[in-house]
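May I ask for whichever protein you like with its backbone structure tokens?
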Amino acid sequence: MAMPDTNEKLILNQHVVRVVSGIISYSHWPIAPAALHLCLVPPSNYISALTHIDMISDQTELQIETLSFNVEQLIERCDVIYYGQVDPQLQHQVISLKETKPLLTIAENNPNCEIGSAFCLNINSTQATFSLNLDILTRSGVRVHPNVLQLARKVE
């Protein structure tokens, strides 16, 4: 498969940013924080694009940080975790140990979306869509607008 040209990469980056920011903006924490902390866990082709998400709403600031995979640090510092090429088994360690902290997880390397993250991106050469793991979303402690859940169903 040929690598997409620069223009195609920019468009795909925009699609990934739109999907991730959309998921976050339609999510609600039990106690609305003044700022949400989005942690980006490399490696990923989209880290640089995701660091430029401005804000998700007028009321909530989005603070973005790139962190190496470390279960305790991710649980302590993050409200949202975006996993790049991180194995789903490792993703699952975080959700299993988070206890009562509300934590939204999004992954780009979780094709079956059976364990690890609530939302799993499906990225191909022209678009970015997502799948949903309802069990992990329920355990996340974060509520998501029903329209987002409907979108996930349409894709599957």
Notes: The chain has six helices and eight strands. Residues 73 and 102 are 15 Å apart (CA to CA). The first strand starts at residue 27 and ends at 28.
